[in-house]
Amino acid sequence: MNRKVDVCIVGGGPGGALLANILAENNVSVLLIERTNDFAKAFRGEHLNEEGEQILKQHGLFERIEQLGLLRMETLEYWLDGEKIKTIEPAPAIGHLGIHVPQAHLLQAIIEQAKTYPTFDYFLNTTVKQLVQNEEGQYTAVRALQGNNEIYIEAQLIIGADGRYSTVRKLANLDVTIRNHGYDLLWARIPAPTDWTPSIKMTLVDTMQISLFTQAKGYVQIGWNIEKGSYASLRKQPFSPFVEKLTKAFPQLTHSVNEHIQSWRDFVLLDVFSSISEQWGKDGVVLIGDAVHTMTPTGAYGLNSSLMDAHILAQMLLQNERFDFMSCATERKKQISEIQAMQIEKEQKFQDAFVVLG
């Protein structure tokens, strides 16, 4: 199968989907490629900050997402030894401290809108195998596999929106610098107690951070920091004493934890690191989102940064007949550098809040 489009976007996460949607709305022919058989299958961040919320509103998506379901956070709470020691409430003008948006709702809204434009198309279950260059060294096509069928896609621009382990970045030989933050993360999701208010709760257990994020549809997501690389040895230890630390930290979760976290298999491990690429694109290839600047979970910046990348890149593409990506990336690189530095500072100073408050 052969296809020819203006832009081929690899990766159907929020950033890639939003970029495809904006371009298609403006009569740019776009093909969006996703390696899984469902846009919402791969886990990604699900918390919007003010920046992400405004981008979705600007592109007419927020109301549709709200209809599908989202949840506004009412408080940020700090807990110590099973007791709440501090509560932060939102500014009245904003009214919330971030929004939980189920990934399926976010992507459904974006893709449904994109499908209303005749210049948008997408392939699921499709894996990129090669980037093709012309005689001048410009990347002009993508070879991909959909099942056993090879697809050849000619494009004026190829976008790598395919995450922290980006295939496009590797195939284009773009650099990446990885930073170890000293911890990994265990995720788990359990039903929220009946009296649970929409909130983000933080605590310390054995000097490591545990965060609780209330989710839409009556769930609580648990993020438990553990020492980098320690999970293999941790799994060899008895499970009960480990999880009892969680119920001691948040007694109101005891019943739900005991019912739904009964073995190590009920946790999902996230390998935590941040990364940055000096080259955000070259010779007809551009990277956005985690493909070019992987974030840690701290502050939930990953999703929002990806949406901002898509928003800015779309405006630049639509405003410039001759697209100078390296020029327009300069300011965005500075912003990302500041966010990553902020994440490091938050991680390093997290324990200080409990020393002061305790």
Query: Total number of helical segments?
Result: 10
- Major β-sheet annotation: 8 strands, mixed
Strand content: 25-35%
Number of domains: 2
Number of strands: 20
Q: Any idea what the CATH architecture of the largest domain is?
A: 3-Layer(bba) Sandwich
CATH topology of the largest domain, by name, is FAD/NAD(P)-binding domain
Q: What would you note in describing this structure?
A:
It is built from 10 helices and 20 strands. α2 (50-58) runs parallel beside α9 and α9 runs antiparallel to α10 (325-357). The protein folds into 2 domains: 2-46 and 102-179 and 274-354, FAD/NAD(P)-binding domain, CATH 3.50.50.60; 182-270, D-Amino Acid Oxidase, Chain A, domain 2. It has helices at 14-25, 50-58, 62-68, 103-114, 167-171, 231-234, 239-249, 254-260, 302-319, 325-357, and strands at 2-10, 30-33, 47-48, 71-72, 75-80, 83-88, 99-100, 120-123, 126-133, 139-146, 149-160, 177-180, 183-191, 199-205, 208-215, 219-227, 268-270, 273-276, 281-282, 285-287. The chain is of the alpha+beta class and 358 residues long. Strands 1, 2, 8, 9, 10, 11, 19 and 20 form an 8-stranded mixed sheet that branches.
